[in-house]
């Protein structure tokens, strides 16, 4: 439990001090971190389905990322934070679908944010 609290503290500090701030029109990284904080323990050491609090945060993030700017900002934030925490790749990739929602980005340090934003633009056709 202590290691989970330490991970949450590290993520919060990184979100506040080291992640670039985006324009007012895009979702802030602090909102992304707040929404996904309940998922940290699950993504690092969990299995099976995510806890309800995690899915509530994922659903909140999905509802908040409506524009291409929001999706790009959320993607860049998730990618930055994912570089500082070791997550299980299979859980990160399946997080949104396991919560019954669609997110424009996986919780992965290797995600290509331009691909997600471009695929979102092309899906509007």
From TrEMBL:
Keywords: Lipid-binding, Signal, Transport
Signal sequence range: 1-25
Annotated ranges, domain Bifunctional inhibitor/plant lipid transfer protein/seed storage helical: 29-113
Superkingdom, taxonomy of origin: Eukaryota
SUPFAM superfamilies on file: Bifunctional inhibitor/lipid-transfer protein/seed storage 2S albumin
Stretches that traverse the bilayer: none
Record-linked Gene3D superfamilies: Plant lipid-transfer and hydrophobic proteins
Gene Ontology terms for molecular function: lipid binding
Family membership noted in the UniProt record: Belongs to the plant LTP family.
Job of this protein: Plant non-specific lipid-transfer proteins transfer phospholipids as well as galactolipids across membranes. May play a role in wax or cutin deposition in the cell walls of expanding epidermal cells and certain secretory tissues.
PANTHER family: NON-SPECIFIC LIPID-TRANSFER PROTEIN 2-RELATED
Protein name: Non-specific lipid-transfer protein
The organism of origin for this protein: Cardamine amara subsp. amara
